[in-house]
Task: inverse folding
């Protein structure tokens, strides 16, 4: 049970009550309760569990009881009963971008819309655009949202699969007949979204490993089970495939099941040029070719070397030039997670974060980081409890005091006082220059007016980038993976502007974003733009997303030198022109 789970349950109650047309004051009470839970500086989950929520403004008796029930049992009877009053398909509508509870209620009350399929049917029949508050343009947006949802059915975000991968690999490796086990496929290549997970195990007893795999508690149901292959679905719907091979076949199999389609085609072509055929099990002499027998490869490095290549990191195996570079000895030494010394763009309870400034700092220190950039939302992000100028200055003072405390206690760590400042529609920033000048750094991001034309959005970003107080550009395209398409923007033009104004581009490693997209980092790197791997953490657990960020940065061909937060605390202080602590 987490703070976010408590808050999201209260918000879900508010949504359902709104659909019912319940008392607006009651609805507001649940939303206020959710905000209070998110912003409370202490351990709200422990207090709820111990029934010690008395006296907290915004949480009345009814909410205290429900939070206690949630914290102790993990579920809430009141919420389950509320859900039971509506068709199951109705909840699909909340997944559609641009449809809020008021519009869903109008669709349900007026047209009996109780599923995405029914909504599409009525949109195409012209019935929805007749409703007040909708219209033809609104219907076009709904149909686009439905198409987007359907394109992504059965896909999962990279970050959402991490825990599954760790659990499944652990279960495979604990089996006595497992010699080696690895995850392969698009997960190993660090693709931003996945259709399934591919696992590979080396064993002399394949049927035993297959039986072990399909019998685990995390298996929701078995799709297929053979002597060397099996496929299962997890409760989340994620498909997991396992292939069992011999130890001698493992290196070729891992290379085959890791590489993207185009990469594998190019690798097979390289093998053919040398007189060999390469498949998922072995490298063999091509019929009629005058070539020596290939050895048994212990690992992928030996396979690559036999084909005249330096070892190609899994993240690069997309046929975007990695094979040519590997043949010429020109592959970059990619960044490692251990290279990172700090991160920027983190949120606290001052805006919409789950943990206090002190808690975020303590977690960063525990991770071994040397600095942490706090950048709560600016005032225009009212939905995220953005800070006005007074609250911003109060936070800056609090950060300065904590840094003095670290210095006095001999703790070699620094909190950097920043802000995620909204880029307004015209490209100006949400704070005046005087307020911006008090900050150590500024992350400039778009959070509204995302339907601008490409030219207007590009001009908007470039104007913000040109501001001398902007340190870095946040989540450049505004995408939310599997939820929202990126807004239209000329990415090369924005990158060129960042070159001109010496502005850093963040790699937002929140699993929902991974923005800027890995496909653009090689171009940005060649232009000389620096990257900052930023967590956009809204909780202490979010700091762990640095591991995902490092993998995506590797996929973008980035090295330690390309990423500013590989620099030490003293180097960052010098870069930001700050006095040393």
Result:
């Amino acid at each position: 049970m987490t703070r976010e789970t408590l808050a999201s349950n209260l918000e879900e109650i508010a949504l359902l009550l709104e659909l019912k047309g319940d008392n607006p004051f009651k609805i507001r009470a649940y939303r206020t309760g959710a905000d209070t839970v998110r912003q409370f500086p202490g351990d709200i989950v422990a207090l709820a569990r111990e029934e010690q929520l008395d006296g907290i403004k915004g949480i009345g008796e009814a909410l205290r009881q429900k939070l206690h029930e949630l914290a102790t049992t993990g579920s809430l009877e009141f919420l389950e009963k509320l859900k039971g009053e509506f068709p199951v398909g109705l909840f699909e509508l909340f997944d559609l971008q641009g449809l809020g509870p008021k519009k869903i209620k109008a669709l349900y009350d007026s047209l009996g819309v109780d599923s995405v399929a029914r909504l599409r049917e009525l949109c195409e029949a012209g019935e929805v655009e007749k409703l007040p508050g909708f219209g033809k343009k609104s219907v076009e947006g709904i149909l686009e949202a439905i198409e987007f949802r359907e394109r992504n059915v059965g896909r999962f975000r990279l970050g959402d699969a991490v825990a599954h991968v760790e659990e499944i690999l652990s279960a495979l490796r604990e089996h006595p007949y497992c010699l080696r086990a690895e995850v392969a496929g698009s997960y190993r290549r660090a693709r931003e979204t996945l259709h399934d997970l591919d696992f590979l195990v080396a064993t002399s007893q394949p049927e035993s490993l297959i039986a072990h795999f399909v019998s685990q508690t995390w298996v929701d149901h078995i799709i297929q089970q053979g002597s060397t292959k099996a496929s299962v679905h997890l409760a989340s719907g994620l498909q997991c495939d396992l292939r069992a091979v011999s130890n001698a076949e493992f290196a070729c199999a891992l290379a085959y099941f890791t590489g993207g389609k185009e990469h594998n085609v190019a690798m097979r072509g390289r093998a053919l040029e040398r007189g060999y055929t390469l498949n998922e099990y072995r490298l063999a002499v091509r019929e009629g070719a005058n070539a020596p027998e290939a050895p048994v490869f212990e690992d992928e490095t030996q396979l690559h070397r036999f084909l005249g290549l330096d070892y190609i990191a899994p993240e690069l195996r997309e046929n975007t030039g990695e094979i040519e570079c590997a043949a010429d000895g020109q592959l970059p030494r990619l960044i490692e997670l251990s290279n990172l010394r700090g991160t920027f763009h983190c949120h606290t309870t001052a805006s919409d974060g789950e943990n206090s400034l002190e808690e975020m700092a303590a977690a960063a220190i525990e991770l071994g980081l040397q600095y942490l950039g706090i950048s709560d939302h600016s005032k225009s992000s009212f939905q995220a409890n953005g800070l006005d100028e007074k609250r911003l200055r109060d936070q800056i003072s609090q950060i300065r005091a904590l840094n003095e405390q670290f210095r006095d206690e001999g703790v070699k760590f620094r909190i950097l006082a920043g802000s995620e400042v909204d880029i307004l529609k015209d490209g100006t920033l949400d704070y005046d220059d005087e307020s911006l000048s008090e900050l150590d750094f500024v992350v400039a991001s778009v959070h509204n007016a995302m339907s601008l034309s490409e030219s207007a959005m590009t001009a908007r970003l470039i104007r913000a980038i040109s501001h001398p107080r902007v340190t870095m550009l946040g989540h450049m395209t505004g995408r939310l993976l599997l939820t929202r398409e990126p807004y239209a923007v000329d990415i090369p033009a924005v990158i060129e502007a960042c070159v001109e104004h010496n502005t850093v581009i963040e790699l937002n490693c929140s699993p929902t974003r991974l923005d800027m997209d890995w496909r653009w980092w090689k171009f940005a790197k060649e232009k000389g733009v620096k990257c900052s791997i930023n967590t956009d953490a809204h909780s202490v657990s979010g700091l762990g997303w640095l591991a995902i960020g490092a993998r995506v940065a590797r996929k973008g061909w980035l090295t330690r030198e390309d990423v500013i937060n590989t620099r030490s605390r003293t180097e960052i202080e010098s870069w930001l022109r700050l006095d040393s602590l």
Q: What stands out?
A: The chain has a mean pLDDT of 94.
